[in-house]
């Protein structure tokens, strides 16, 4: 005889106020309803007030001629271009100072964080003093300070400082040599190829080290590739490449690459301010690694710099990355203070746009969307990297 096993039936949930699950659903629906009503009221009230005052809405103004100049831009721009292109120029200017600032603040802050842990008394105290002073002075004051230093104290173009041949520093900004010619595209392609090859080699080296314990000289190999591949691409192309040096003509320099006083002051302020916070993040990350790791690595004959690079910092990264993400986001958002010293970032350009068009709400939405997109992109990348280096339990 076949034995039939009856499975226990799941009791049906009764809709009762005493059921916590039912109550939680009702509460959530009520909260969403209240939020939805609040948003509907704000939007409808705003549209009504705009209609009463005969203020047009929408983003159609983006296709109209801007009619105002922008001091510096990454791409070609003239006042005859549209408001949309002007805003795009502002976004690119913000991205330029943010990317350069993040890279510089990371390098400088890492050096400061390591210096604060130095066994040399003078180096450690100087690094500590720098960190404490710069962290406690508001960024806006630092921007005013550096802008005043560049525009008021630096000499004019005729007496510009010339620390390195082809580099001039004056109250008109920083002048650098620039590259021109058809070979520039080939060189950039060589750099991109070198980066791809370095990433592939890094992946292979990590797998090889896990399997054999042998360390591959990735840093030296990467430097060689970054120098060799662009040079090879240039030689293969046979294209021309010229170096244009800044030259004093009249009352200012012509030619070369120009970094305006506004850009230089903004970049200096962001890097100096943020690097102090980055230094504390790096210091705390290094100190989170057990002292036994230093002793064990030293016992097998590794020098202190090699212990730091090969043993301590890879472990400290798991502690460093999350707070470092916050510092990158802060630097990007703090770049909005550029409007105080006249650098044409997204905030400055949109302010001019909404003053001319009266599209204040649309302008604020564009600024919010721009910063939200950049911040979320940084967060996604850093979270991905943090997940890549996280310890995986077996």
From TrEMBL:
<feature type="domain" description="ABC transmembrane type-1">
    <location>
        <begin position="91"/>
        <end position="382"/>
    </location>
</feature>
<comment type="similarity">
    <text>Belongs to the binding-protein-dependent transport system permease family. HisMQ subfamily.</text>
</comment>
<dbReference type="InterPro" id="IPR043429">
    <property type="entry name" value="ArtM/GltK/GlnP/TcyL/YhdX-like"/>
</dbReference>
<feature type="transmembrane region" description="Helical">
    <location>
        <begin position="364"/>
        <end position="385"/>
    </location>
</feature>
<dbReference type="GO" id="GO:0043190">
    <property type="term" value="C:ATP-binding cassette (ABC) transporter complex"/>
</dbReference>
<dbReference type="GO" id="GO:0022857">
    <property type="term" value="F:transmembrane transporter activity"/>
</dbReference>
<feature type="transmembrane region" description="Helical">
    <location>
        <begin position="217"/>
        <end position="243"/>
    </location>
</feature>
<dbReference type="GO" id="GO:0006865">
    <property type="term" value="P:amino acid transport"/>
</dbReference>
<feature type="transmembrane region" description="Helical">
    <location>
        <begin position="21"/>
        <end position="43"/>
    </location>
</feature>
<keyword id="KW-0472">Membrane</keyword>
<protein>
    <submittedName>
        <fullName>Amino acid ABC transporter permease</fullName>
    </submittedName>
</protein>
<dbReference type="InterPro" id="IPR010065">
    <property type="entry name" value="AA_ABC_transptr_permease_3TM"/>
</dbReference>
<dbReference type="InterPro" id="IPR035906">
    <property type="entry name" value="MetI-like_sf"/>
</dbReference>
<keyword id="KW-0029">Amino-acid transport</keyword>
<keyword id="KW-1003">Cell membrane</keyword>
<dbReference type="InterPro" id="IPR000515">
    <property type="entry name" value="MetI-like"/>
</dbReference>
<feature type="transmembrane region" description="Helical">
    <location>
        <begin position="186"/>
        <end position="205"/>
    </location>
</feature>
<keyword id="KW-0813">Transport</keyword>
<feature type="transmembrane region" description="Helical">
    <location>
        <begin position="263"/>
        <end position="286"/>
    </location>
</feature>
<keyword id="KW-0812">Transmembrane</keyword>
<dbReference type="Pfam" id="PF00528">
    <property type="entry name" value="BPD_transp_1"/>
</dbReference>
<keyword id="KW-1133">Transmembrane helix</keyword>
<feature type="transmembrane region" description="Helical">
    <location>
        <begin position="136"/>
        <end position="154"/>
    </location>
</feature>
<feature type="transmembrane region" description="Helical">
    <location>
        <begin position="95"/>
        <end position="115"/>
    </location>
</feature>
């Amino acid at each position: 005889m076949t034995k039939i096993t009856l499975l226990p039936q799941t009791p049906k949930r009764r809709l009762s106020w005493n059921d916590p699950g039912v109550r939680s659903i009702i509460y959530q629906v009520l909260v969403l309803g209240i939020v939805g009503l609040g948003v509907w009221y704000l939007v409808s009230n705003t549209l009504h007030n705009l209609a009463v005052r005969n203020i047009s809405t929408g983003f159609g103004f983006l296709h109209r001629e801007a009619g105002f100049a922008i001091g510096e831009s990454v791409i070609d721009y003239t006042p005859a271009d549209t408001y949309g292109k002007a805003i795009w120029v502002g976004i690119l200017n913000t991205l330029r100072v943010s990317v350069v600032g993040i890279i510089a603040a990371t390098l400088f802050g890492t050096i400061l964080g390591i210096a604060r842990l130095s066994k040399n008394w003078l180096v450690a105290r100087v690094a500590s003093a720098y960190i404490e002073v710069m962290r406690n002075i508001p960024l806006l004051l630092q921007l005013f300070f550096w802008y005043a230093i560049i525009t008021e104290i630096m000499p004019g173009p005729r007496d510009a400082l010339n620390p390195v041949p082809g580099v001039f520093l004056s109250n008109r900004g920083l002048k650098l040599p620039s590259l021109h010619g058809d070979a520039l595209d080939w060189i950039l392609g060589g750099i991109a190829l070198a980066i791809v090859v370095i990433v592939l080699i890094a992946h292979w080296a990590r797998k090889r080290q896990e399997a054999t314990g042998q360390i591959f000289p990735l840093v030296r190999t990467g430097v060689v590739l970054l120098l060799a591949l662009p040079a090879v691409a240039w030689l293969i192309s046979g294209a021309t490449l010229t170096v244009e040096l800044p030259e004093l003509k009249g009352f200012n320099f012509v030619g070369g690459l120009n970094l305006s006083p506004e850009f230089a002051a903004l970049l200096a302020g962001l890097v100096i301010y943020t690097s102090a916070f980055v230094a504390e993040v790096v210091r705390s990350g290094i100190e989170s690694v057990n002292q036994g790791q230093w002793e064990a690595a030293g016992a097998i004959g590794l020098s202190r710099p090699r212990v730091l690079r090969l043993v301590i910092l890879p472990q400290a990264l798991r502690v460093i990355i999350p707070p470092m993400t916050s510092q990158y986001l802060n630097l990007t958002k703090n770049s909005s203070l550029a409007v105080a010293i006249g650098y044409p970032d997204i905030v400055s350009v949109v302010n001019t746009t909404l003053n001319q068009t009266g599209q204040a709400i649309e302008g604020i939405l564009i600024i919010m969307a721009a910063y939200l997109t950049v911040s979320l992109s940084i967060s996604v990348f850093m979270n991905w990297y943090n997940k890549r280096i996280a310890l995986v339990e077996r």
